[in-house]
Design brief:
The protein is of the alpha/beta class and 268 residues long. It has a single domain, classed as Metallo-dependent phosphatases (Purple Acid Phosphatase, chain A, domain 2). It is built from 6 helices and 13 strands. A 6-stranded mixed beta sheet has the order 5-6-7-8-10-9, covered by helices on one side. It has a 5-stranded mixed beta sheet with strand order 4-3-1-12-13. A two-stranded parallel ribbon has the order 2-11. The longest helix is centred in the N-terminal third of the chain and has 18 residues, at 11-28. The two termini are 25 Å apart.
Length: 268
């Protein structure tokens, strides 16, 4: 069983990189299930539209996760209620539209995959206690019971929260990945009880930028230049960044995890 997980798609650059590379990656690596974080996929780098979500699904993505920008496009409030494959953080306030987790079928319908979307509490928009919610969801998405495999996307600002969640889910989830900070970390590994982990899997977008935003304008903002304008995405060639997890079909735990970094200025 192979699961592809891609980081935050950043504006049109990220969408182009996805369109250019996704089909090839799925085919050449025999991917059974694909997840992407889409909360920055709109042209301005904030939020996601229905058309963009449908574009991702048509390209082979099975589930879209998100984070603090999930409500930046008004239309999302409506279509997320009908589109179960688009998740918002599970620890948003009770009664928020949409769902924060779900159980989905693999591409060949052989397996059931649980996907959990969480958002950190530190330096992020106000949310319910992420560790309490994680504990509750660990009893609803159970390897060997109602799912064969499970993935956690933790959308957070600080490494300590992400690492703590990784260790909490170690041995009870196939994989935990961090998103949001848009820079891939160098700690890709399988934790001691069998859960694949990376603190942040990076973004799908132009790395000749400041976390995906136009670098010249970002510098102006940092230097408080009066000519600076509102942040907008860089539109150079995008890099596709994420991981591929190979999982044991008997236990649901990870056997191996490898980085995916293709194209653009960050390619390896």
């Amino acid at each position: 069983m192979k699961i592809l997980i891609l980081g935050d798609v950043m504006g049109s650059s990220g969408r182009k990189a996805l369109k250019k590379n996704l089909t090839k990656i799925i085919s050449s690596n025999k991917i059974d299930f694909s997840i992407v974080n889409g909360e920055n996929a709109a042209d301005d780098g904030k939020g996601i539209t229905k058309n963009i979500a449908e574009e991702f699904f048509s390209q082979g993505i099975d589930v879209i996760t998100s984070g603090n920008h999930i409500w930046d496009k008004d239309e999302t409030l409506n279509f997320i209620e009908k589109e179960n494959r688009l998740l918002r953080p599970a620890n948003l306030a009770e009664g928020s539209p949409g769902k924060g987790f779900g159980i989905f079928n693999s591409k060949n319908n052989r397996f059931k995959i649980g996907v959990i979307n969480l958002m950190g509490n530190v330096y992020m928009r106000k949310t319910d206690d992420v560790f309490k919610v994680a504990q509750e969801l660990s009893k609803k998405i159970v390897l060997g019971d109602n799912v064969d495999f499970s993935v956690v996307d933790f959308h957070g600002e600080i490494t300590s929260e992400k690492m703590a969640i990784g260790h909490f889910f170690d041995g009870i989830s196939t994989c935990v990945v961090g998103t949001h900070t848009h820079v891939p970390t160098a700690d890709t590994r399988v934790l001691e009880r069998g859960t694949a982990y990376q603190t942040d899997i990076g973004m799908c977008g132009d790395y000749n930028s400041v976390i995906g935003m136009n670098k010249e304008n970002s510098l102006k903002r940092f230097f408080k230049d009066k000519n600076a304008v509102k942040h907008y995405p860089s539109e150079g060639e995008g890099t596709l960044s994420g991981v591929i997890v190979e999982a044991n079909e008997q236990t649901g735990l990870a056997k191996n995890v490898s980085r995916v970094i293709i194209g653009g200025s960050l390619k390896i």
